[in-house]
Amino acid sequence: MAFAIFAISMALIYTRPFGLPVWASAVAGAIAAMMLGVVSVSSAFGVLAMVWDSTLVLVGLIIIAMAFEQMGFFDALAGRIIGKFAKGSGGIYRIGTLKFFALMMGLGLFVATFLANDGAILVLTPLVFALFSNTKDELSITTPLVAFLLFFGFLSDFGSNALIISNLTNIITAKLFNLSFKEYFEAMVLAQIFAFIAACGLFWLVLARRLPAVLEFKLPARRIGSRRFLACLFLLILLPVGSMIFEEMELPISLFILLVALISIMMQDSGKFALFKRAPFGVVVFSVGLFVMVYGVGMAGILEFLRQNIQMLAGLDRFSSLLGIALGSSIGSALINNLPMVMLGDLALRDFGADKGLIYAHLLGCNIGSKLTPIGSLATLLWLANLKLRGVKISLLDYFKFTFIFSLGVLFAAVLGLWIGDSFDI
Which of 17, 223, 258, 386 is 20 to 30 A off residue 206, Cα-Cα? Predict the structure, then answer.
């Protein structure tokens, strides 16, 4: 029964018949699970206690991203970076592809690290459209517009490993295993560096080097005052610092993130209430409903299956154990979405008594491996739908061709970085 409820609910979440909100399908599945006795009411409240802070952190980060994007901060940031290196006349700027690629690598990693993968996709997609608004060629994979949309789409997930706040999966796992900001960062920073280098290297070899040697584009037209620009930059840098302070004070991290979100809303010249109305509070309801269903599936036997596989993998040599856990979590995330997979894996790892290295490997699999299929994360689905609405269609064949190379290559590099840090205590 638990599997049937989960399968039907996930089908409704992905297909959204009659425009049904994703949170409604998740809540309906959770209610069905409780009514049919798959999950008790007390267990449902236990799940709520586990995920409410994590999901509110994500909501706050998305509000901050929306507020900054509405003020034109990211357009100004891109303009200030590129304007120093590009040559332009008549409103059209020209820059070498390699130089532009290097600048965009840094910008993409910065946004993904501080505003989470969902916030990064929300911000970077319209930015790329703005930069290449003069594109007149027929769109294809080798068109600069499409190529950099792909790059940012993948980098948003691949670059979301360094901080706890960089991904909802990180937040949920850190809370369950009581991982501090400092401890988490020290364990994952080398894995993130390796993942970032691999992502950029693979993208250059597969796509970027096939682009024209010189790119032409327009800088975004929106401008922002220096004081407001610096205030936004300060708030972004403050996010991990304030989160660490609230953690040390044993206060909910979401309290600080939502405070910064409120400040971001109040910084708007107009449209404050409209921005608040657009805030994705449905994410909280969606997460709770989804995790209640996942808990029911776990109790129906999946957790025991996962525990047995973890035990088998833990008996291998250290690198094989880390890689095996990461690959298993990747496959699970690609098949059933990374949010259900991260919770199932977390619970199985906790019951097994796994060491922290295996926990971090599981996270890398959920964050990076979710890109193996379009249904691996809701962010990917929303990203592809957004591209289609703007006239950019990426075929499933092209998607699978590139994601197979990017995801598996980046995942291997990230696990290698994790193993080096774990083995030599770096």
Answer: 386
